[in-house]
Amino acid sequence: MELLSGADMLIRSLQDEGIEYVYGYPGGAALHIYDALFRQDKVKHILVRHEQAAVHMADGYARASGKPGTVLVTSGPGATNTITGIATAFMDSIPMVVLCGQVASTLIGEDAFQETDMIGVSRPVVKHNLSVRHPEEIPEIVRKAYHIASTGRPGPVVVDIPKDMTTPNERYEYSYPKKVKLRSYNPAVRGHTGQIRKAVDMLLSARRPMIYAGGGVILGKATEQLTELTRMLGFPITNTLMGIGGYPASDKQSLGWLGMHGTYESNMAMHHADLILAIGARFDDRVTNATEKFCPGARIIHIDIDPASISKTVEADVPIVGPVDSVLREMIGMVKESEQKPDAGALEAWWKQINDWRAFHGMRYETSDDVIKPQEVIEMLHRLTNGEAYVTTDVGQHQMFAAQYYKFDKPNRWINSGGLGTMGFGLPAAMGVKLNYPDDEVLCITGEGSIQMNIQELSTCTQYNLPVKIINLNNQALGMVKQWQDMNYESRHAESYMGSLPDFIKLAEAYGHVGMRIDRKEDLESKLKEALAMKDRLVFVDVQVDRFEHVYPMQVARGAMKDMWLSKTERV
Amino acid sequence: MRRIISVLLENEPGALSRVVGLFSQRNYNIETLTVAPTEDETLSRLTVTTTGSDKVIEQITKQLNKLIEVVKLVDLTEGAHIERELMLVKLKATGAQRAEIKRTVDIFRGQIVDVTSTVYTVQLAGNSDKLDAFIQAVGTAGVLEVVRSGVSGIARGEKVLSL
């Protein structure tokens, strides 16, 4: 057997795990590890400009590929800078392993230079964390970390590595375990057949059914099964913000997404449904609005890999714990075999009602002859990229507009921080996608507030030639904050304006990229085309959009699903 | 409702803080908490008493089960069970009080485990209500110090919580 130092074992373990890229930033406690990285060329390291961006890069890659991302940072500030990124991944169940240097084990607890209790600090925002206590444990810990991160309900795993665990001249026998033994971690491998049968019986006798599918469908790689079941049943379907792309948005059975800024028809159909089939969704407060008014006439079937997601906020009538792909496959089989068919008459009446709702709002917005509307920028981007681009966003109005007007027909292409709502996510996430999918179009749709939260990464893009397209919907204000202030605080715009925006064009150019400004509506299409045509350059497109636009529909606070603002003046 | 949740936990550093952290992070109550190693040195047994609606208790058990280091758990209050708490009390004991305290200790089937000319130290085991009742019986005025262990529990009959 080979003898390797702890640092070499760590890197060999990453190789054996099939890791191609590690996103990170070096520092004292991680230097043995960085030296081991230097002495090989299988695992490539991407040097970011701030550790938070390393985590979002790994996250963007994970969301696009379905595989765990990997981060490497030093102790103390290096580790604490990753926390926002880790919390982002945790809230959206994104598989990820974060390797953190730590001061030598002999110094732990002495407030040593760059010491932070990373195990303690990260505990509430990780699926699990592990600490290396002996160098020989490293291969097994790495295998465990990836296993835990990527199975069951995925999530981030932190590994804390004291510096003396990676000392170069102490060598140990290396072998990478094929399997891990974890007696207390056994995620469900299939759903309960009796429960699934019960659910199928309910589905086939429903009169106003609704399928409500979340991010679990994407994480659980079950879009095919979801599409097959939905088409077989002929039911309407809505996806959550995290579930966008789980069912083709352009299909006639899709009602778009639901919740606070979901479509009118989705929210109305949810409210009036008599049966809801929830699949890999967690009845988040941005979906349900007031839970006591949530879908009063509906019985609820809830499929989820995580038992704790079931009946957490809304009680399920038929809970099914299991991986969504296998549960749906079993459902499809039962529906096929069943002699009972969905009630065609009831469904026809239900679809008529839904189509009336569709016609009533239809995601309309007022256009203008001279001012560029943010919605039309997104619609044009959708057209110019044939709906095929990977789209990352930051958080705020631009995020909602992107989700509403870019129609995704495929999974893993819509990449946003849905749960934590992290501004600064978009650019590094786009970089993570572009690095791994260099031939695909990658758009970062952002705003002038969010982009400045990780703008330093324009430098990383230069170093690694990451020609993402940044579309900055510049309304010169923190749009969503301002919208809430308009609606709830009599337009008192407390701190929602930025009085000193940089010249984004010069800024992009300073980093070696192309900057482009669009402020006239007649230039929108030609300039966006021009930007997209520059395949090998990062283009920062600063689009001056309507400063007064709001996102609609918007659910009325503490109301039911059906209570919405449809424009600044219409409330239903 | 008050519940007693008994947990088998990997006997590893950090496992206990994960359990305690979960309770504060998700806004659950902890009334008492006890933890100690078991006959299997790889496992600790943790007992937590908590209160909450059925929905909250269901979430507590589900969230606890999600922790990688939680091997098994049971809500003892779902079935017949025995619960015990140990209390050590220092009582002012002078003059006529000494005999009175001795009688009360006997009634509660406690033991005086340390004596000075002015102080009795009493050891008492039982369910939490019994310990409360003892304090009430001797009167809080004479109580100098109280130490309670928190609740330990075990199911009645054949049922066991083991691997």
TrEMBL record, chain A:
Top-level taxon: Bacteria
Catalytic reactions of this protein: 2 pyruvate + H(+) = (2S)-2-acetolactate + CO2
UniProt cross-references to CDD domains, sorted A to Z: TPP_AHAS (cd02015), TPP_PYR_POX_like (cd07035)
Pathway stated in the Swiss-Prot or TrEMBL entry: Amino-acid biosynthesis; L-isoleucine biosynthesis; L-isoleucine from 2-oxobutanoate: step 1/4; Amino-acid biosynthesis; L-valine biosynthesis; L-valine from pyruvate: step 1/4
Domain Thiamine pyrophosphate enzyme TPP-binding, residue spans: 394-543
Cofactor note: Binds 1 Mg(2+) ion per subunit. Binds 1 thiamine pyrophosphate per subunit.
Annotated ranges, domain Thiamine pyrophosphate enzyme N-terminal TPP-binding: 5-117
Keyword flag Cell cycle: no
Cofactor(s) listed in the protein's UniProt record: Mg(2+); thiamine diphosphate
Residues in Thiamine pyrophosphate enzyme central domain copies: 196-330
Organism lineage: Bacteria, Pseudomonadati, Pseudomonadota, Gammaproteobacteria, Pseudomonadales
Classification via Pfam families: TPP_enzyme_C (PF02775), TPP_enzyme_M (PF00205), TPP_enzyme_N (PF02776)
EC numbers, comma separated: 2.2.1.6
Gene: ilvI
Family: Belongs to the TPP enzyme family.
Keywords noted in UniProt: Amino-acid biosynthesis, Branched-chain amino acid biosynthesis, Magnesium, Metal-binding, Thiamine pyrophosphate, Transferase
Protein name: Acetolactate synthase
TrEMBL record, chain B:
Pathway info: Amino-acid biosynthesis; L-valine biosynthesis; L-valine from pyruvate: step 1/4; Amino-acid biosynthesis; L-isoleucine biosynthesis; L-isoleucine from 2-oxobutanoate: step 1/4
Superkingdom assignment: Bacteria
SUPFAM superfamilies, per the entry: ACT-like (SSF55021)
Recorded catalytic activity of this chain's protein: 2 pyruvate + H(+) = (2S)-2-acetolactate + CO2
Any Pfam family matching the protein: ACT_AHAS_ss
Keyword Cell cycle: no
Enzyme Commission number(s): 2.2.1.6
Keyword Transferase attached: yes
Class of the enzyme per the UniProt entry, highest EC level: transferase
Listed InterPro entries: Acetalactate_synth_ssu, Acetolactate_synth/TF_NikR_C, Acetolactate_synth_ssu_C, ACT-like_dom_sf, ACT_dom, AHAS_ACT, AHAS_small-like_ACT
Keywords linked to the UniProt accession: Amino-acid biosynthesis, Branched-chain amino acid biosynthesis, Transferase
ACT domain span: 4-78
Subunit structure and binding partners: Dimer of large and small chains.
Family, similarity comment: Belongs to the acetolactate synthase small subunit family.
Summary of the function given for this chain in its UniProt record: Catalyzes the conversion of 2 pyruvate molecules into acetolactate in the first common step of the biosynthetic pathway of the branched-amino acids such as leucine, isoleucine, and valine.
PANTHER family according to UniProt: ACETOLACTATE SYNTHASE SMALL SUBUNIT, ACETOLACTATE SYNTHASE SMALL SUBUNIT 1, CHLOROPLASTIC
Designated name of the protein: Acetolactate synthase small subunit
Organism: Marinobacter zhanjiangensis
Lineage, highest ranks first: Bacteria, Pseudomonadati, Pseudomonadota, Gammaproteobacteria, Pseudomonadales
Gene it is expressed from: ilvH
